[in-house]
Amino acid sequence: MITILLLLIPFFPKAQSQQRQLDSLHASLKNAANDTVRMITLDNLASYYAESNRDSAMLFIEDAMIIAKKMNQRLFLADILLFKSYMFQKQANFSLSLKLCNEALSIIEDNKSEKNAFIPKDNEFANEPGKYRHRMTISVFHQLGNTYSGAGNKEKAIEYYQKEIQVADELNSKGGRVTSNMNIGTIYLEMEKLDSAFIYSARALENSNRTGSKSYAGFILRNIGTVYTKRGHLDSARYYYQQSLLVNKEQNNVAGEVTTNIALARFYQQLFQADSMKYYANAAFQLATKLKAGNYIGTAANLVSDAWKMQGNADSALAYLTLSKTVGDSLHKNLNDRLTQFQNVNFEEQMRLEKEAQQSISYRNKIRTIALFAGLGLLSVLAFIFYRNNRQKQRANKVLETTLTNLKSTQSQLIQSEKMASLGELTAGIAHEIQNPLNFVNNFSEVNTELIDELEQEVDKGNLAEVKAITKDIKENEQKINHHGKRADAIVKGMLQHSRSSSGVKEPTDINKLVDEYFRLAYHGLRAKDKNFNATLKTEYDKSIGTVNIIPQDIGRVILNLITNSFYATNEKAKLDFDIYEPTVTVKTSKIINPNGNNKVEISVADNGDGIPQKVLDKIFQPFFTTKPTGQGTGLGLSLSYDIVKAHGGELKVDTKENEGSEFVIQLPV
Questions:
Q1: Domain membership flag for residue 4
Q2: Residue 81 contacts by C-beta under 8 Å, 6 or more apart in sequence?
Q3: Is residue 662 helix, strand or coil?
Q4: CATH at 574
């Protein structure tokens, strides 16, 4: 899975920024120096209110259209027509939405529209009017996709969204890939095609982050949360829903807030948590009422009714159920009327021809001819549809294969990145460790040089007793040199083994030796980076463990990660309470004997740091989640550690108390 997460800024500073933006727009409109500035400002105000106050948005759209027509700014007019089309989609007026899309397309297809066209200076095609005009077809295809999706023709909608992405790729345009991928993901979600829904939603989120286009990030996060809900991953679902609410509030996207609150109400309905369900359903109801979004009002009222019913309050449940039914019946009738109107728009040309034919003398002959050609046309259309569907299926399979290949490649790169990060943590410790045996080798080599000089002198004197004593000393020194040389060699081999990719082959490994080596290397590594840091190191090794069949490189990385995290936690606490606090990290190993023969080896890493807050405890094993400041942690260490231990058939657990410390426990089968 592509793991794509937003780091959300707190809402209130953002809300203040939005108010300043709104004040600035109104001031700009009031003090506009010319019609161009006035037209652009009106368009920006319409965009601001699009998802929060649609009545206001429509007023600004109409005023902007008047100025665009007056100034003969045809491309700008086409853009406003598409914006207006979007607003009519929200009213389920698909026939008018379709007409506005076609009107905008006719303007865009006319190359004369480029003449004197206003193009914002910060636009990617500011100096290329032809490309700018062609890029506008992205918006046309998008609104056509929205229109057909709203009218129930999902396949036609996906076709237009794919065209939108194709044009964006042809022009290498920054836009066109966020809402298109988002909407395709939404359609697949409605069709219960969860894998496709997740892939397109993840692409949308990736493009949102890359381009900085956050307006609809809340919708995307909601879709991802719903995929996790349907898969039964409730913690992840709750996390993405909450992120969706935050982003929607930041972007002043009331419609997004409504849909996410509805999703959360349904989420808690599944869990039979009536209070939470009612809270989010009420929030959706209030916001939908403010937005005058009838379909959302009915849905939210129905959910509030269910929540009251779950709590045993029949009167309140009936009141909201009645409201929901009233709104629903009205919407159903309105939607049917709109869909009929939409179908009439598509067929009105055909009906006009039929009427003319009826007035003709050769009416019956023409009918037969039309029927014949219609039959042939139908067969041709069916053949084309089958051919197109087959091609689309092949293209979709290629896209999925490419995506899966990219995912696997990205996963390998992330694992390698985390491995090299942990190797960096080891470097200073290894330098310290290897220096000790090298010092011994150098010192004993110098002593032997002096002893050899003495030996030569005693040989000349013929003093055999002294010669033997000196020879014995030289031999002992050589043994020490050999011992420490092998020690340095072992350290270097260990470092190389850690940096290599895991072979995936288990081998008998001395757990106590492995833990002790990484414990000391991690400590010296931190000391090398921060000379002021010191800590009490405690070890309790169970000598009865012996060797355990594991992949040493992988388990070594897990141990290193846990110990490094413990040192980090104690070091951070020491900076605040240096005078009275004694940093302590304790590492234990033990063998657990079970009567059923399911014996285990347990490795414990404990510290007396600040512990892990309960509110984030269920997220610490999620990829990219970290409590460290930006730039000091990848958020992958614990996630990869958890996966490695699981791959060994073991468990990785945590026990923590705020302000007292944490203990991570690895359990491996023997």
A1: no
A2: 65, 100, 101, 103, 104, 107
A3: strand
A4: 3.30.565.10
> What sections of 109-214 are H helices per DSSP?
129-150, 154-171, 178-190, 194-211
Residue 431's Cβ-count burial label (10 Å; 0-12, 13-18, 19+) is: middle
Quote the pTM value: 0.44
- Whether residues 481 and 530 share a domain: the answer is no
φ/ψ of residue 606, rounded to 5: -125, 150
Dist. CA 628–CA 574, nearest whole Å: 16
Q: Considering the domain boundaries, does residue 224 fall inside one?
A: no
What is the per-residue pLDDT across 495-511, written as a single tens digit (0 to 9) for each? 555 445 555 688 899 99
| Last residue in a domain, options 499, 521, 552 | 499
Q: What residues in the chain have per-residue pLDDT under 70? A: 1-19, 293-294, 314-375, 396, 399-400, 403-404, 406-436, 440, 489-504, 577-579, 624-625, 630-635
User: What pLDDT is attached to residue 373?
Assistant: 66
Q: Which of 499, 527, 544 is the last residue of a domain?
A: 499
pLDDT digits 0-9 by tens, 275-319: 888 888 888 888 878 777 667 787 887 888 888 888 887 666 566
Pair (659, 522) in one structural domain: yes
| Structural domain for 318, as ranges | 253-363
